[in-house]
Amino acid sequence: MEEAVDSTNVTCENVRTILAGTCTILAHTGAMTRGLVPQGPHLRRRAPLRPGWTAAAEALIYTRPGVLEILPALPDQLAKGSINGVRGRNRITVQSLSWDTSARTAIVKLTSDINQDVTFICRRGITSVGTGAAVTTSPLGNHARVVSLTAGTSTTITVGLLTGPFKLVNRNSGKVLDDPGGSPNAGTALDQWSDTNSSNQWWKLVPAATSGYYRLVNIKSGLCADVQSGPPPTAPRSSSGPPTAAPTRNGSP
Hints:
This protein is 2% helix and 46% strand. By secondary structure, the chain is mostly beta strands. The strands form 6 sheets. An 8-stranded antiparallel beta sheet has the order 5-4-1-8-9-10-15-12, with no helix packed on it. It has a 5-stranded mixed beta sheet with strand order 6-7-11-14-13, with no helix packed on it.
C-alpha cells in the first residue's frame, strides 16, 4: 500500500536539521507546511520542498508494516516541536506528533485503517505510556511497547521519554557523579562530588544503535562514562558484592 503524507506541518523553536555533516536552518520559529507523498522507502515529494524536508520528516516518524517509531533521529536542536498528517506504510495515519524533550513527553494522535497490534518504538527510552488502547510489553525491550489499535478509532498515546539531562546521585552520600573540572581528556577518572549544578555534573542517555543499551554522556565534555578494563557488554554484571572492574572514567563517545 502506498504511503502518503497529505500535508506536513512542522512547528518548533530554533528548527535545524543536520544533513551530510552540515547544519541547514529551516526556520527559527513559526510553522512550515508542504505536501508530501512517498519517496524512497518512506516519503516522496508531491510539491517542491526545501532541501532536507524529507530527511527531517524521516527523523521524526518511521514506519513499516507492524511498526511505528517516533523520533528515531531527532537532532538535539529540535528539542520541542510537532509534525502533522503523516500516513505510514503500516496503514496508520499519524494526525499529529508533538514532543518536548525538556518536559520528557511526546504525544501521538493516530488512526489505523485496520485492527492490528503495532510495535510502538522510541529509542530515546520510554518511561511510561498512557492511552485508551491495550498496551503490552515488547520483546524488543523497554524502549518499545505493543499497542492494539482498532480500525477507524482515533487513538492518543502519551509517552514519557527517557531523555534530557540527568544527575546521578549516590543514595548513601548524596553526592553526584562528577567529571573533575569538566575535563575534555579521555581517560580522566570520574568521582563523586557535592552538587554544584555545573555542566560537568549533568549527563544524558544516548541510545546505542539498536541494542536497547544507552551511553552515559557528559554534557560538558561530550565524552562517555566508561569502565576501565571492564567486562564486554555481553558479560554478566554483578548487582551486589565487591567491584569487579576498575574505576569509571571518561571515554570516547
